[in-house]
Specification:
The protein has about 280 residues and is α/β, with parallel strands linked by helices. The protein has a single domain, classed as Alpha/Beta hydrolase fold, catalytic domain (Rossmann fold, 3-Layer(aba) Sandwich). About 40% of the residues lie in helices and about 20% in strands. The chain contains eight helices and ten strands. An eight-stranded mixed β-sheet has the order 1-2-4-3-5-6-9-10, with helices on both faces. A two-stranded antiparallel sheet has the order 7-8. Helix 3 links the parallel strand 5 and strand 6. Helix 3 packs across helix 6. The radius of gyration is 18 Å and the shape is globular.
C-alpha cells in the first residue's frame, strides 16, 4: 500500500493536512473521504485499507480546525469555506489519480458536507456516499436555547462550546471507543458558527431534499444514539435523483465502519461501488 502526505492550501490561506492511501498496482477508482466533527482523517486508515485491497485509492484531509490542519478548533467562518475545501481536495484527487472514477464519501458531519456538496454542485463524479450524515441530532437542543445561542452567534461566531459527546455511542466495540477517547487529535469543541451552519444545512436537506445528478448512498446504524437515522430516510425520500439508495444496518451505532459487523458494512458499500463502476464500463 502506497501512502503519501501532502498539504492543501485553502482559499483563506490555511494549511490543511492531506494524505492518501493507494494500491501498489493500478487504481480503478478513488474515494475522496471527508471525516466527521471532532475527529481526523488518520482514524480511517484501517477502513481505507479495505478499499486498497479492492484497487480503490482513498484520499482525504483533516478539515480546518481538526487534526493536524490549521484553524481554530471546531470552527469555520462559513459553510461555503468547507465546500471550497472539498473543491480543493477533489482537485488534488484528480491530479494524483487522473482518468479514474471518483466518489465522495463523508461520515457524520462529513456526511452532511458531502450531501450539501452534491445538492449545490453539478458533480462530475461517479457517486456520493454519506455515512450517518449529521442532518438531525438524536437529542436536539430546546428551541429557546437554540434561539438564544443563535443570537449570541451573530455577536461571537467563533465562541466555542463542548459537545460532551458520549463516545460509547460510536461503536459496540469497546476497543474502538477506548481508542477514540485516548486519541489526542480528537476534540469535542464546536463553534456556534459551525454548529448552526451544519444544523441549518441538515434541516434543509431532510426537509427539502434538493436535486442531485449522481448516484447517492445513505447509510445509518438503526441504533445510532448520536444522529437520527430517520432524518437520513427523510432526505432519501425527498431528494430528486435517479439513483438514491438508503441502507439502515439493524442494531448498529454511529460509526458503522468501526462496529463488530464492519465486514458486512464494507461488503455492502463495495457492492454498491462495483455496480456504479460497472455502469461506467
Amino acid at each position: 500500500m502506497n501512502h503519501k502526505e501532502f498539504t492543501l492550501k485553502s482559499v483563506d490561506r490555511l494549511s490543511l493536512f492531506g494524505q492518501y492511501w493507494a494500491p501498489e498496482e493500478s487504481v480503478k477508482a478513488v474515494i475522496c473521504l471527508v471525516h466527521g466533527h471532532g475527529e481526523h482523517s488518520s482514524r480511517y486508515e484501517p477502513w481505507a485499507a479495505r478499499f486498497i485491497e479492492k484497487g480503490i485509492a482513498v484520499i482525504t484531509c483533516d478539515l480546518r480546525g481538526h487534526g493536524w490542519s490549521e484553524g481554530k478548533r471546531g470552527h469555520t467562518p462559513s459553510y461555503l469555506r468547507l465546500m471550497q475545501d472539498i473543491d480543493i481536495l477533489v482537485q488534488r484527487a484528480r491530479e494524483y489519480f487522473p482518468d479514474v472514477p471518483l466518489f465522495l464519501y463523508g461520515h457524520s458531519m462529513g456526511g452532511n458536507l458531502v450531501l450539501g456538496y452534491a445538492v449545490r454542485r453539478q458533480l462530475n463524479m461517479s457517486g456520493v456516499i454519506a455515512s450517518a450524515p449529521w442532518l438531525r441530532a438524536k437529542r436536539d437542543l430546546p428551541r429557546f436555547i437554540k434561539g438564544m445561542l443563535r443570537g449570541i452567534m451573530f455577536l461571537f461566531p467563533g465562541l466555542s462550546l463542548h459537545t460532551k459527546l458520549d463516545a460509547a455511542g460510536i461503536s459496540h466495540d469497546k476497543e474502538e471507543v477506548k481508542k477514540y477517547v485516548g486519541d489526542p487529535l480528537n476534540h469535542d469543541l464546536i463553534s456556534l458558527k459551525l454548529f448552526f451552519e451544519i444544523h441549518d444545512t441538515g434541516k434543509q436537506l431532510y426537509t427539502q431534499g434538493g436535486k442531485v445528478n449522481v448516484p447517492v448512498l445513505v447509510i445509518h446504524g438503526s441504533e445510532d444514539p448520536i444522529i437520527d437515522p430517520e432524518a437520513g430516510r427523510e432526505f432519501a425520500e425527498k431528494v430528486n435523483g435517479d439513483d438514491v439508495t438508503l441502507k439502515i444496518f439493524d442494531g448498529l451505532f454511529h460509526e458503522v465502519h468501526h462496529e463488530p459487523e464492519r465486514d458486512k458494512v464494507f461488503a455492502f458499500i463495495y457492492s454498491w461501488l462495483e455496480e456504479r463502476l460497472n455502469q461506467k464500463v
